[in-house]
Amino acid sequence: MSTMLVPKPIKPWQRKPKEMLPEVGGVFFVVIGTWAAIEFTGLSGKLGAFISASLLSLLASTFISNQSRGKSAAKNSFFGTLVAVFSILAILPVISIFGTVLIKGTKGIYIGFFTNDMSLSSVNDPLNSGGIFHAIVGTLLLISFAMLISVPLGILTALYLTEIKGPGSRLIRFLVQAMSGVPSIVAGLFIYSAFISGTGRGFSGFMGSLALSILMLPTVARTAEEVLLLIPSDLREAGLALGGTQWRTVAMVVVPAAKSGLITAVILGVARIAGETAPLLFTTGGGDTLNLNPFNNVMGSVPFAIWKALISGSAESNARAWASILVLLVMVMVLFFVARKLGKRKI
Amino acid sequence: MSITESAKVAIPEPRKISTVPRFSDRVFRVVVFCGGLSALIILAAIAIFLGIRGFSILSQTGLRFVTQYEWYSAINTDGTAGEEGSTFGIGAMLIGTIITALIAVVIGVPIAVASALFLNFYAPNSLRGFLVAVIDLMAAFPSILFGLWAFNILMPSGEYWAKILHKYLGFVPFFDVSAPVFTRSPFIAGIVLAIMIIPIVTSVSREVFSQTPLDRIQAAYALGATKWTMIKAVVLPFGSSGIVGGAMLGLGRAMGETVAVFTVLNIVFQANFQVLLGAGGNVASLIILKFGEASIEEINALMAAGLILFLLTLLINMAADLIVNRSSRKGR
């Protein structure tokens, strides 16, 4: 019986340990160099470590490529590393923000934080009194009324741009783009000048909703337009060929087909306005008690509660501000990930 | 007999064919058109209402409103008149707005463009999805969160880097300081704004970079280009107007930012060109600072300031949109 000779699979493209040596050396160089930079020079802290590590890895990768593959490879790996370092730098704040909010925010949270309001306690009271129940309810009311205004207008704008393509649709697309850059404080000032100042009306939740809907409208309109453009025109033609009018086609075929995308548009709009502070300072007045009537009296909201706690400046109010911002961040993140999940679904 | 009888059955009249839309369609079109006009109406209304309220101040002070540095209200909140006439000028704040926004662009745009390049051309697929999600999430963060974080966490390290800059580059007039106060400076406010504009600049440049024609990329590789030479020769020239447009969009955002700047910056009514010194301003934060205890006249002046801020950001945004759209139509 002869034994079959099975050739051992080889991978000629795989690098031998000896060839990996420079890279391992480079990593060692960066680690030791960073430690030395922190220990012996003026650099300190996590940011200092990050910056010295990035500079050293730039140096190391350029040097290794230069030795092994020449000058143009050195240039290539220099810029490759630079681009990678810069994109780590871009998400560094997010990591820091998450860490800080989690550490500082959880200190101020207790059960009553979600069920009490601040009517009986001042911002400087100890942390086990008062809460932001009024603010959460207020924010939900503000958002719902802003949605009532801006969702129909935004979707109608998107329909005008995609379904009717009427005269001036390029101008309107341009204006919607420009509107998305309107500073939030200007929206607040506008509502104040148009509906509050000089009319005898006071601050109220509905005024806040009006200001927020100005900010929400362009987000909804732009996202909805993108979604509607993705609907294949076969569907529209099929609807028309079956004898439907344009109105029936849009209402029964196009909009249902784009449903999940339109919901994404609305959620992204809500995420945009959930944390807006500046317009609310001019319009809602920021109450400390639960107020369920958006048309009368001041109404609290989470951003406004944070603002109040922030400017009063004591240790307790600071902790309260961080706890409220944790709540706000969780709200925004939930909205964001729901929107992403829905947006990924096929139409 | 039967044939003649059946001929008597009335033949239905042929359906009228016309290109005139039905009533329901006409209603639909009118409704959608009205909805589509909302952006135009809102923008016009903002300009008109702020203009009406600010007109008295603007006509009184004229051009001095944007060149003067003083902001002083002669009428106290209780309605009594102060000793001097009131002067309203947003010159210092306007300079501060431009300085902080420019710092933001100078710091933020290179980082954002580099991350757009990394996401489009370097990152492995698994990492790309995660990074895009993180950067998009960053765009949804409320500005008060950035303000609170910057005041508590960024300020110490910002101060530290400002001191290093001052120590080694102090001979440059911008990095000189007349008093050793490094906290709450335009430099730190600029860093916060840079962080806040990174998402939008990244997404605009990413979109433009991704439209680079594949044949040109492959042609560059076929000619023996490394990844970087390919990017330098093909992607960056193709996407240059996208980068410029994205930078201008970021500039517009940075100019209109309110809460984060107000939290970080020490607002002083002087033109301060020493970016590391803890004194500066911003039109939006001026409005928030003065609004609480403003008299009627002062509120009108604030409206005028808001009008100028609105027109400035609108102009920058429109120019940015034009540049970005031109670039996206350019390629084949």
End-to-end separation of chain B in angstroms reads: 73 Å
Number of strands of chain A: 0
What is the total tally of β strands of chain B? 2
The level 1 CATH classification of the largest domain in chain A is Mainly Alpha
Beta-strand percent range of chain A:
under 5%
Characterization of this structure:
Chain A has 347 residues and is mostly helical. Chain A has 2 domains: 20-107; 133-344, MetI-like fold. Chain A has helices at residues 17-40, 45-69, 71-105, 133-164, 169-179, 184-196, 205-230, 233-241, 246-257, 259-274, 278-283, 302-312, 315-344. Chain A is extended. The relative contact order of chain B is 0.15. The mean pLDDT of chain B is 86. Chain B is mostly helical and 332 residues long. Chain B has a two-stranded antiparallel sheet with strand order 1-2. Chain B folds into 2 domains: 23-62; 91-330, Orthogonal Bundle (MetI-like fold). Classes of the chains: A mainly alpha (347), B mainly alpha (332). Chains A and B meet through helix 3, helix 4, helix 5, helix 6 and helix 7 of A and helix 2, helix 3, helix 5, helix 6 and helix 7 of B.
Please supply descriptive tags for the structure shown above.
heterodimer, A: 347 residues, mainly alpha, MetI-like fold, 2 domains, 0% strand, extended, B: 332 residues, 2 strands, 71% helix, flat
Topology:
The complex is a heterodimer of chains A (347) and B (332).
Chain A: H1 17-40, H2 45-69, H3 71-105, H4 133-164, H5 169-179, H6 184-196, H7 205-230, H8 233-241, H9 246-257, H10 259-274, H11 278-283, H12 302-312, H13 315-344
Chain B: H1 2-7, H2 23-36, H3 38-61, H4 64-67, E1 71-72, E2 87-88, H5 91-122, H6 125-140, H7 143-169, H8 186-210, H9 214-222, H10 227-256, H11 259-264, H12 283-291, H13 296-330
Antiparallel strand pairs in B: 1-2
Helix pairs in contact in B: 3-13, 5-8, 5-10, 6-8, 7-8, 8-10, 9-10, 10-13, 12-13
